[in-house]
Amino acid sequence: MKLTTKCRYGVRAVLEIAKNYDNRPTTRKEIAENQNIPESFLENILLELKRAGLVLSVRGAKGGFLLNRTPNSISMLDIVLILQTSIVPVECVLNPMKCAKVAKCKTRPIWKKMHEAQENVLQSYSVKSLLENKEIDQDCLLI
């Protein structure tokens, strides 16, 4: 699976918002500057996250974005599935009817395991665990 730029930026935006979870809304400008994301691109990402119910927007002078759930209850998988069309390596993993050879396919079990492994890894990291994880290179998260 290759993550899209939109997905990677979206994860970073959610992490930036989560840093202020108990304090205040995080502005789009603040997210863009701290995470080095173009504001025009970020606007569309935040709109998708809002439509999916992951973030809320607050209007006004002290407005910005808030998480709609606790950082501990949001997994990386949640974010990726909102911003990425799919994480399946081949279509037949989820829809066996897409391939006439599925019954005799020698590689499909590998693709299924690959998909399961990706889901398990993404599900195993919450936003909170990423912010607290000292093993992860924090420069990679730009936080």
Walk me through what this model shows.
With 143 residues, this protein is mainly α. It has seven helices and two strands, in the order αααββαααα. α1 crosses α2, α2 (28-35) packs across α3 (39-51) and α4 (76-83) crosses α5 (108-123). The mean pLDDT is 90.
What Rg do the Cα atoms give? 17 Å
Q: Can you give the mean pLDDT? A: 90
Distance between the termini: 24 Å
Q: Poorly predicted ranges (pLDDT <50, ≥5 residues)?
A: none
Assembly status: single chain
Helix content: 40-55%
Say how many strands there are.
2
Count of helices?
A: 7
- Please identify the structural class as seen in this structure: mainly alpha
Strand content: 5-15%
Q: Main beta sheet, described?
A: 2 strands, antiparallel
Mass-distribution shape: elongated
> Strand order, biggest sheet?
1-2
* String of helices and strands: HHHEEHHHH
Short structural summary:
The chain has 143 residues and is mostly helical. Helix content is 49%, strand content 6%.
Task: Please give a handful of descriptors for the protein shown.
mainly alpha, 49% helix, 143 residues, single chain, two-stranded antiparallel sheet, 7 helices
Task: List the topology elements.
Blueprint: H1 5-19, H2 28-35, H3 39-51, E1 55-58, E2 64-67, H4 76-83, H5 108-123, H6 127-132, H7 138-141
Antiparallel strand pairs: 1-2
Helix pairs in contact: 1-2, 1-3, 1-4, 2-3, 4-5
